[in-house]
Amino acid sequence: MTDLANGAKLFVLVENEKETKAAEKQLKALGLKSKSFELVRTSSKTQWTRDWGPHQLVDSDGRRALVDHIFKGYPWVPADTKVTDLKYFSNGLGDDLATAELASHFKTWRVEIPAILTGGNLLVDGKGRAFCTHAMLVENEPLMDQDKFRRLLLDKLGISDLVVLENTEKFGIQHIDCWLKLLNEETLLVKRVPVDHFEHDPLERNVERLSALRAPSGKPYRIIRIDCPRIRQDEVPAYTNSLILNRVVHVPLFGIEADKQALKTYASALPGYTIKGYVYKGWMHFDALHCRTRALFKEP
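RE: above sequence
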């Protein structure tokens, strides 16, 4: 938290007065000055701001807008997801209200989109392309067909190319940020697991698909693999679930030997960036640092 505050002002979401007092006490105990953070009252119930939180866009006049999409919660579904499989392990109601509250707090305009655009499963390159897993299409099937969904992304967000990749988990939330990271518009960081791990084959098929694409420069993507060995049973570290804040990369670490190589992989991939790692017992194989943050860009 202290490192994040050194890179940008923190907006910490709280639900009520009790949480406000507790958060302020804890942040000051970490040595943060009042000017480095702001407590914002919202209806949000969870810490996963990446997922329900607002995507952002900039219009032709350079104005920033918060994108308010539908959020129902977290699907817990098999790899071959069907609409009949959709079951959510959280109630997204309070989280779904929070984007409108944030727009009001920041006095910025809001673009409502009648579709599910869960942030952990929609990675954008800022050049008209976005990446998601098949679960994103399935979640939207009850709302609209795929053609309408793609037109909506184009009309509202300027996304002209939605790259839909294979789900990788046998059973889970199927979020793409647990195995793919856009380091920049030309470079993709992709998880690599042991050959006997159930994610190995779908991941390698996804890499083959990504290898056939062209980056905005017209060249093939630079694809870098990051090794993710088992932590326990079939759980592997979500090293791609990192946060790039300005020129600092904040990497979740899992207290295993592979952490050292993960930091070296990031350093090699992003020369000139500062790489910082954080061991925390609360990181999960499907939830780490990226899931719990959402950057807000300043008006130009």
